[in-house]
Amino acid sequence: MGKFKSFWKDNWIGYLFLAPWMIGLVTLTAIPMGASLYFSFTNYDMFSAPTWIGLDNYTQLFSDEKWLESVRVTLIYVLIGVPLQLTFALFIATLLNKGISGLSLYRAIYYVPSLFGGSVAIAILWRQIFGGNGLINNLLSNIGIEGTNWISNPNTALYTLIVLMIWQFGASMVIFLAGLKQVPIELYESAKMDGASPWKQFSKITLPLITPVVFFNLVMGIIGAFQAFTPAYIVSGGTGGPLNSTLFYTLYLYQKGFTQFSMGYASAMAWFLLLAIAIATAIIFATSKKWVYYQG
User: Fold this and answer.
1) Tens of pLDDT along 87-129?
2) 238 pairs with which residues across the strands?
3) Domain boundaries 57-120+154-291, corresponding CATH code
4) In Å, how far are 59, 66, 265 from 56, measured between CA atoms?
5) How far is it, in rounded angstroms, from Cα 244 to Cα 26?
6) pTM of the entire structure?
C-alpha cells in the first residue's frame, strides 16, 4: 500500500494529463465496442429491446448474396488498389529523391490529395470527372474517342474508385521519401564503381533497405482500404450501384444498420470485418520475416 501511495504521489500529474484520453478510450471506444459485440448476437432494430439469437447473424452472412458480393468488391478494391497505390507512391518518391530543386513544393503538391481524398467534396468532384459529360469524356472527345459514363457502367465504376485511391498516394509517398533519405549514399557509390545499372541499384540496394517502410505502408494501406466508405457512398449515391459494382463492405454495413435498421446484423458484419483485417494483418506480419530486412 505504501508503494502504491508513493507511486501515485510521483506520477499523479502524468495520469491527470492522460485522464481525457482514458475517458475517451472507455466511453467512445471500449463501451461502444462491447455493446456492438453484444448486439451482434441479437435481433436489434434500435426501436425495441434486443432479442438474443446467438450465432444466427453470423451464419446468415454466408447465405446473403449481397454480403458475398460486397466481400468480392472490397477484395478487388484492396488487392488491386493497395499495390498500385504503393507502387506509384514509391515511383514518385524515387523521382523526388533525386535532389531536384523545389523539393518541398513538389512534396506539398503531391501530398494535398491525401488531405482531401477521403472527403465528400473530392468524391463529388470525382463523380463529375468520370460522369457522362465529365472531364475524362471531354478530353477523349477532343481526340475522336467516344467515352462512356464511367461511374454508371458496372464494368468500370469500381475501377474509377481504385483510380481515386491511387491518386491519394501522398501520405505513403512522404513516408517512402523519408525512408529513401536513410539509405547510405556510400552503397550507391560502391555499386556504381562496380558497374551496377540503375535498376540493379534499386533492386539490390534501395528496395531491400526500405522494406520496413514498405511493410508499414502496406499494413496501413490494407487497413484503410478495407474501411473505405465515403467514395463509394458519394459516387453511387449510397446504393453501391450500378449492379452492386461499388458495394463496398462498409457501405453494405451502413445500409443494413442505418437504412434497414438491422443493427444486430450490421454489428455482426462489423466484427467480421475486424476479424478479417486482423487476419490479413497477422499474415503480413508472419510473412514479413522473409522479405523485410532491418539494418544491423
Assistant:
1) 999 999 998 888 666 666 766 766 666 666 556 677 777 778 8
2) none
3) 1.10.3720.10
4) 5, 17, 9
5) 37
6) 0.88
